[in-house]
Amino acid sequence: VLAEKRSLGSRDGPPHLVAVVLLHGRAAARDTLRLLQGQDSAAVRAGPGGFALLCPRLKQRWRFVTAQAGDLHAVLDLAKVADSLLFILDAVDGWDSAGEHCLSCLFAQGLPSYAFAVPGGTDLPPKKWIDARKKLSKAVEKRFPEAKLFPLNTEQESVLLLRHLSMQKQRHLSFRDRRAHLLAYAAEFVPGQESDLLGTLKVSGFVRRQPLGVNSLVHIVGHGDFQVSQVDAPPDPLSLNPRVVKGQKRSQDMEVQDDSVNGTDEMEEDVKVLMKADPSKQESLQSEVVPDPMEGDQTWPTEEELQEAEDSLKARRRVVKVPKGTSKYQAAWIVDDGEEGSEKDDDEDEDDDIDDDLMEEAVSQEGESSEEDPGEEESETMTVSECLRDDQYDEKMEEDEQMLERYKQERMDEMFPDEVDTPRDVPARVRFQKYRGLKSFRTSPWDPKENLPRDYARIFQFQDFSRTRKNLFRQIEKEETEGALVGWYVTLHICNVPVSVMESFKEGKPLVLFSLLPHEQKMSVLNFLVRRHPSNTEPVRAKEELIFHCGFRRFRASPLFSQHTSADKHKLERFLRPDAALVVTVYAPITFPPASVLLFKQRSNGMHDLIATGSLLSVDPDRIVIKRLVLSGHPFKIFTKTAVVRYMFFNRDDVLWFKPVELRTKWGRRGHIKEPLGTHGHMKCHFDGQLKSQDTVLLNLYKRVFPKWTYDPHVPEPVPWVRSESVLPEQEVEME
């Protein structure tokens, strides 16, 4: 721990990377950075997005990078690689609604070491300034119990802030501690020979956390995975002891040196080639399996399979007395006396003859009444909506009408979970032909390899994912990876990069690179354990397009929601529940946990709303997500343990088709269908106890569901968050 603390920001380690985050619209970073630049005996070097501060007397070097105001992606990307976060607060109001949203996202992603600076406030009267400080301290202590506020109005206070940043304990983020990463200090784009839109991107920066190998893939956050062809070692632009002429030393200490953004000046100097990629050892960019359409064809059985089939036939043979001249085929149809007796119906032992007579009489009366007034039954099953649309909704209010419909669907699903109405125009045995009944949802077997979709032929799967993960992490901790060591200033030659990456870097957005572990470029099925964020109250339906921030990746996908249980089957949830943790399932590139995940939903105006936060649970295509349908019926005539049930089916064939499925009621009774009565879907059912007249008979059907292949690595930039008034402690109590 002591060695790590001493290496950060020293001559042998990378510069101490500090990301400056503005939490209020009135907070100005310019005055703060000007105070930090005015340190005695410290050289200032301008760079992309901020500046570097070199202090040879303290043997420390810092790099300060400021995120653009309102750019959520820039703040989250800088927090992925920053050693410390410097939050700039307003002297009176602290942070506003946009700052609150930013803090919520940073908490969910993982918060590195941080500090709070409060510039300004000197123009206030002393008494008001003291009251504002107390009020601000209470608001900060509620979210950050161990935080300390640093006023920033003089150079002496800036020295205290720098000392605190360099001496405080570093907080670790697990998803970046096992992967090499760097923040680009300079970049240059060399167009390719075939097209100007693709080329080689030369990115320079300091290697952090882990050694960077040339044969491993790198992920540019927000742009995708790429291969590295070469690693160079240019001169360090932020060296504490630069090689300069004595006459130029004083001028360099007094003036601010401007480094070019594209880094061409420094790359023209003596550049040493550290290593080049070996094609035989380089990781492939293949992310999907190319399915073979002939792979599932039936082949001729082998001799071993034929022998196994013959042995199984011998084991099933029985000795039967047959007349002379009987063939084997004819003998197979002869039934023993014992079998004939065992095939008799067990209903003879039931003592419900009286109930049967009463039931036939009731059914005959019901049949007459149904023929005379068929509309009476339909009126009883009609569902009247409680939330009718008002006349004020016109054609321009389509979005509000859709939201109202979602609220209604979420409310109905909460009141009557998984219940559906049996269609009358289509037979139920056709409409629900893909569903099956289960004796017990918890204990009944379900083969995970049964009826897989075609998309499963495109993904990768581990025989034992947890064992692979443990072996890989053990290898990272014990073995030293060949490559650029931590703290080196290197230039990576990244192949086949689109020119849009360089354009975004020129616009001032941070360029962040992560090296990938083996297999992390391949597609599989990822399961995230998330919980809905308290700030979001709108209904979120399954299979809606959401934006995922998983570890160092960003992508769009349409997920499935399911319950988080310890069983081998998990029930599908149609909406994201606000009161329980759910599992989100998507097709995405493999990522080894632990890794945080943030779920955003894009509005029609382009803003991103945080709807859920959590972590990566597993990479498991065999996790079974079951969709449940519940068909409901109503008891018409109730007897001792039998009842006539109607409105579940509407023809006789459907009753016979679903006869093997077990019935249950909302009040805990269990039973089964005995026989259909008439031709209108009425059925006689037997239960383990007498029903109540207000009870409802239910029949559960199940089907396995799979996510849709909607993975898209390109996420649009969010519209800046609309800032409102500050979030003070009194206002927070009212909101709660």
From TrEMBL:
Q: Which domain of life is it from?
A: Eukaryota
Span of the signal peptide? none
Recorded GO cellular component terms are:
nucleolus; preribosome, small subunit precursor
List the keywords (alphabetical). Answer: Nucleus, Ribosome biogenesis
Please list the residue ranges annotated as the Bms1-type G domain: 14-171
Task: Decide whether keyword Membrane is in the record.
Answer: no
Residue spans of biased composition, Acidic residues class:
336-360, 368-380
Q: What segment(s) does the record annotate as region Disordered?
A: 232-311, 331-401
Is the keyword Oxidoreductase assigned to this protein? Answer: no
Q: Spell out the Basic and acidic residues composition-biased ranges.
A: 270-281
Q: Where in the cell is it found?
A: Nucleus, Nucleolus
Q: Which GO terms describe its biological process?
A: endonucleolytic cleavage of tricistronic rRNA transcript (SSU-rRNA, 5.8S rRNA, LSU-rRNA); maturation of SSU-rRNA from tricistronic rRNA transcript (SSU-rRNA, 5.8S rRNA, LSU-rRNA)
| One Gene Ontology MF term | U3 snoRNA binding
Q: According to its UniProt entry, what is the function of this protein?
A: Required during maturation of the 40S ribosomal subunit in the nucleolus.
Protein family (similarity comment): Belongs to the TRAFAC class translation factor GTPase superfamily. Bms1-like GTPase family. TSR1 subfamily.
What name appears for this protein in its UniProt entry?
Pre-rRNA-processing protein TSR1 homolog
Origin species: Scytalopus superciliaris
**What broad taxonomic lineage does this protein's source fall under?**
Eukaryota, Metazoa, Chordata, Craniata, Vertebrata
